[in-house]
Amino acid sequence: MILRIATCRPLPEPDADEDLLLEALQSAGIEAQMVSWHDPVEWQRPATTVIRSTWDYIHDLEAFTRWATAVAATSAMWNPLKIILGNLHKRYLIELAACGVPVTPTLLLERGKSADIYAQCAARGWRDVVIKPAVGAGSFETRRITATLADADAVCRRLLAERDVLVQPYLDSVEHHGERALVWIDGEFTHAVRKSPRFSGGVENVSDALPIAPAERAVGEAALAAVGALGEDLLYARVDVAKDAAGHPVVMELELVEPSLFFLQNPPALRRFVAGIARRFQR
């Protein structure tokens, strides 16, 4: 069994899952190779593919979409291409809300268009906001604006010149309860970690593995169901949630393309991931 694991080189930050995954695959008799999605030679040959750390795709979404579509046309890809393509742009938060899934209130601004951020945030009662690209990873260009919403206007104008942008209210709960990353592996949630708030240029800090509260699990399952992921051959997912002002969990992000899965915090999740790959090979 040969598996190609899609990554990027150089990585914008270390991937804590990489070495653990390669060792576990080798122990299971699965030959795995890390290959940058940019490599034109390696991807000429069909090979079963798992996307893991393609974190620079955010800078050339069209090229990444072409690459993924071409690979999936000749090889098995996990997660499936349909799931990947539907999760690249964070407009999925708007779509989740329309399906009745609790999400962080989100304002989507389109590239190249002007927007009176001060007026729109004031109308929603937002005085402390987070601004980030609608196609993003690793806190790239994610900013918290607390001093004045005039600053939010300036940040949005700069970002909107090149990309779609999201504006959201800052949830205070991330400072005490924390943002909880719920990890899904091959059919079930396996564990969660607590993540501290992270903005552009910051370092991600995560806790040990934590149990998943029933209300968080329900929101995570609702999010996956709403995008049709539960009906697909979903190998992995991560649903990041936080508590709103009323103490109810809401989706902050639904990660179906290249999320860190925190295998170091939960070795059984890693074993389940490898077993899911082996079972798909046998099928």
Describe it.
- This protein is α/β, with parallel strands linked by helices and 283 residues long.
- It has three domains: 2-87 and 273-282, 3-Layer(aba) Sandwich (Rossmann fold), CATH 3.40.50; 92-102 and 173-261, ATP-grasp fold, B domain (D-amino Acid Aminotransferase, Chain A, domain 1), CATH 3.30.470.20; 107-170, ATP-grasp fold, A domain (Dna Ligase, domain 1, 2-Layer Sandwich).
- It is built from eight helices and twelve strands.
- The radius of gyration is 19 Å and the shape is globular.
Topology:
Blueprint: E1 2-7, H1 18-27, E2 31-36, E3 49-53, H2 61-74, E4 77-78, H3 81-86, H4 92-98, E5 107-109, H5 117-124, E6 129-133, E7 143-145, H6 149-160, E8 165-169, E9 179-185, E10 188-195, H7 214-226, E11 236-243, E12 249-255, H8 267-282
Parallel strand pairs: 1-2, 1-3, 3-4
Antiparallel strand pairs: 5-8, 6-7, 6-8, 9-10, 9-11, 11-12
Features of the shown structure:
single chain; 3 domains; 283 residues; four-stranded parallel β-sheet; 12 strands; four-stranded antiparallel β-sheet; Rossmann fold; 23% strand; D-amino Acid Aminotransferase, Chain A, domain 1; Dna Ligase, domain 1; alpha/beta; 30% helix
Q: How many E strands?
A: 12
Structural class: alpha/beta
The fraction of residues assigned to DSSP E strands is 15-25%
The shape is globular
**Which residues sit in consecutive blocks of at least 5 with pLDDT less than 50?**
none
Roughly how many Å is the radius of gyration? Answer: 19 Å
Integer tally of domains: 3
Residue share in helix:
25-40%
In the CATH hierarchy, what is the architecture of the largest domain at level 2?
Answer: 2-Layer Sandwich
State the CATH superfamily name of the largest domain: ATP-grasp fold, B domain
Helix count from the secondary structure assignment: 8
CATH class of the largest domain: Alpha Beta
Name the helix and strand elements from N-terminus to C-terminus, one letter apiece: EHEEHEHHEHEEHEEEHEEH
Oligomer kind: single chain
Q: Largest sheet, if any?
A: 4 strands, parallel
Kindly report the average pLDDT value.
92
Amino-to-carboxy terminus distance: 12 Å
CATH topology name of the largest domain, in short, is D-amino Acid Aminotransferase, Chain A, domain 1
Physical arrangement of strands within the biggest beta sheet: 2-1-3-4
